[in-house]
């Protein structure tokens, strides 16, 4: 079982394989397809990538059936978020405009009163960190500094 890729498909898979924001499984699948198109056998690909032969075969079958969309996993079941990104963008704007320190408890209160969003202080700190807002906690205060990449 061998994959035949056009030059555009190979380039797309290469870029996907190197993308920093793509999920690891998707990158691995792109790599599997590129190796297969270069003539690697299924067993050799599986040994090289430390995965099973079945994984390699499934990836090739998914590619043949669905193309590029077959490389991504389907969305999985999970709890729906209790907050919206807009809620935190407003909080971020407020923190940047006022240039003062807020405790996660104060942010929690503000979200509850203004947006009717109930989150724990720990979750608030996690979300701020995920949104690249560095918090320096001193006596439970969060001083906002935008992380520069």
UniProtKB/TrEMBL annotation:
Domain of life from the UniProt record: Bacteria
A Pfam family the protein falls into: HTH_32
Cited InterPro entries: Homeodomain-like_sf, WH-like_DNA-bd_sf
Record-given protein name: Transposase
Source organism of the structure: Gloeothece citriformis (strain PCC 7424) (Cyanothece sp. (strain PCC 7424))
